[in-house]
Design goal:
There is one protein chain. 83% of the residues lie in helices and 0% in strands. The chain is mainly α.
Length: 201
């Protein structure tokens, strides 16, 4: 959704938009909200499917003896399996609160704009939650690598390579997430606040 263009349309009518521009605002806002909700559902659905396959594979290999595991020593693996699920359910719970807060966001233009504002707030909160979980994941991965080294399943070289690979991926994800927050979510939230304020006036 091009919020900058919407602001121009809105202000071109001295904050009293005619029927055409008001209809355009409604159509653009409704379309943007529908896309955001659809994209979130698809993204979390794919993440959930990937986690299910990964978890099922690990459990199957442990149960069938393909992957020998001493739970008393290598318990970090259970944390590694659980943490992504906790993150996914936390994110889903936050988004469900947004959905319940706006059960009928298409009733009017203000309702749609308020739902978009709340969706933006939820997305920005999700960035901070992602940062917390990524920090926790660093500690869990370090623990798992140390346990694998202790039981002789990985060499020091393997641990070093794994640490570099995981660290590099984490840095890339962090940069991408921070850029999305700074250059898309925050400006979008400010524009929505201005639009709502001017609509209420």
């Amino acid at each position: 959704m091009d919020f900058e263009r919407l602001e121009r349309v809105w202000r071109s009518n001295a904050n009293s938009p005619n029927a055409a521009s008001a209809g355009q605002l409604m159509e653009e806002a409704m379309g943007a909200l529908k896309r955001k909700r659809r994209d979130f559902e698809m993204f979390t659905g794919l993440i959930g499917l990937a986690l299910f396959v990964w978890t099922a594979k690990v459990i199957w290999e442990v149960v069938t003896g393909q992957f020998l595991l001493d739970p008393g020593v290598e318990w970090g693996l259970f944390l590694l399996l659980a943490l992504p699920w906790i993150a996914l359910f936390t994110v889903r719970h936050a988004y469900n609160k947004h959905l319940h807060a706006h059960p009928d966001p298409y009733a009017s233009a203000p309702d749609t704009l308020r739902a978009l504002m709340d969706e933006n707030d939820t997305a920005r909160q999700r960035v901070w939650l992602s940062g917390l979980f990524m920090g926790a994941m660093v500690g869990v991965v370090a623990l798992v690598l140390w346990q694998l080294l202790e039981v002789g399943k990985m060499s020091s070289r393997d641990v070093l390579q794994g640490s570099v690979l995981f660290g590099g991926l984490l840095v890339l994800v962090g940069i991408g997430t921070a850029a999305d927050y700074a250059f898309r979510l925050r400006p979008e939230g400010r524009r929505l606040q201005r639009l709502l304020r001017e609509y209420d006036e």
